[in-house]
Amino acid sequence: MISLHKVFYLFLCICIYYTNASSPIEQVMEKLIKHISEDQVLKPAEFKFPQWEKKLGLYRSEIRINFFGEPLQADLRKNKYVYVFDNNMFATGWILTALLEANMYGRAPKVIDTEHLSLAIDAIETFHDHNQNESSVPLMTFWSQIYNQTTKTWQSTPDNLRFLLMDFDNSLKLIEDILKFLGIKNIAQLIDKLRANVAAFEDVFQIPPDFDDTYLNIGLGAQLKLLQDKYPSVYQRWLETNSNMKKLIDLTLRYAYRPSSEDLDLNTIDPRTYFWMRDFVRDNPQAIIATTWAQNITEVRTVAHRGIRMPFNLNNVDVTVGANVLYGITTAIIYDLVDFKDYFNQDMQTLYLSTASLIAWSIKNSMKNRPDLAQVYYPSHYNFLWYGSRSLFLLELARRQGKTIPDIFNRVYSILADVYRNDVVKFFQDHVRSDKSSYDDFLGTNDTNIFGKLEPTGEDRIFSTAQTVNVLIASFTYLDTNTGKLKWIMNEQQIDTIKIMINKSISWLLDNAFKYQPFNCFFSGSVKGLNQLPFWYPANIYQYLNGTTFDPDHFDMNNQALLVDSIVGVSGYIDETIYERMISEKHFNRSTPTTFSGYNVPGAEFPFWSSQPYTHAVTLLALAQYNNLDG
Question: pTM for the full model?
């Protein structure tokens, strides 16, 4: 009888243990939250090489170079010591967004407390453009600005790169000694690549504000408004410096691309942009499309030599930027952010529709096989798809809640629903790995072993797989505000297929969330090899900043001063027959690159920005949302 009691007691203890034990998904989420928390800067540091400057409240972000191939080459890309810590707003903004949504739309432990959220928001607030002559303008920069006493302007600059490259030649010996001490091989090749990129790095020291960071900040503000009950002081803090929505809309329209305009500031675009989207321009002549930079030709002529200039002195269109602008507008209108909707005029509605239409067109047409030009700053296709799907998710929610929204929102809803519930699903089905569960972008996909056999290392596999889940959930579910659960849109015929795809990817993430490098490529420069320079593409504007014209066939490409001050662009629409002839001709004595060979091309290794906590954050979001699915 006693032994029977012991057996019963042991059985009871086991039942209690398993009742209280965390499920595998909760264990992984808790570990992810811990990793993310550890990657927030809680103690600022000043630059003193090899110590990087780190700004309080920001999350870890790194600049690396996309070396690939045999092990010694690949190690230069992924080695834990070979990077530059970067203090940018973009990574921290998206990490916060994913963290907050893990609790808003998912079921997860509390991901961030008021203290750490406030630190991050305070850090982001330092990325406002200080050159604005009005107060509280929510115009943001990728890097924070420093004041130049000589030019009397605020200049945006990546601080650690600036410190490192200001005295690059004198720093080389120290860099080499440190790398040798750490056991890094192929040091000479790394130094050569750094030296080759010095000029490219210096170009980004002068960039103006941009609309991707700007509208990311708008979306974040809307989230903070919705979460006032949980973080009551944080939204008020955000409002203090972000309330001038009228000025934001004025700036958005001032710098938008309008191919049919007679104004050179509005109708002229980077020739790389025109190359890939000219069919869209032809079919949508009255389009107004969101651009990357808050600057135009007239302004760059005036302020370039004061240290504020767009790369190549000309604006461009990046569909990832467009997706961020679209989401920022969507959330500002739906959640009545400040007085944004009061200034949502006809031109802004046209911009909203045009930008959404371009996103859908680019997906349906596979970026015209030039993702390097369509996503000129943001190469990750999975990241782009997630940004676009977020607007569809909000529009679906607004419609189900019966919110009063502009008619144009219903048109955009139809456009996005069609492309995301058909073309994007097909993209995932066509690009899933052989395991039918996970996805790769391009980091490490061309690595080999010492015998030259291909051995992909899957460094963006976690990120790409998590973003696939996030895209599918955003495209095929809605938040039931009565139950707090994510419910399936059951009228979609392929819903069973979608469930299987998500289940497989979630199982893979639970098994592999910590088995691969959690890298991503959330940002890059616009030039990833010689073929991506804008000069080789057909153009009809060849001017210097002073307004004089020049002949590209008689231009000294070795004259850096002339090259830096040149404007090469496409104004208006060029008849396609004429344009095709121009493609067959040489520009600056070089042929137009008409094909894209991928991001892993020998000799075209390029700097990219990666953030490990960003990967962890979107993985957490995928798991949390899956954990909140209703059936």
Answer: 0.94
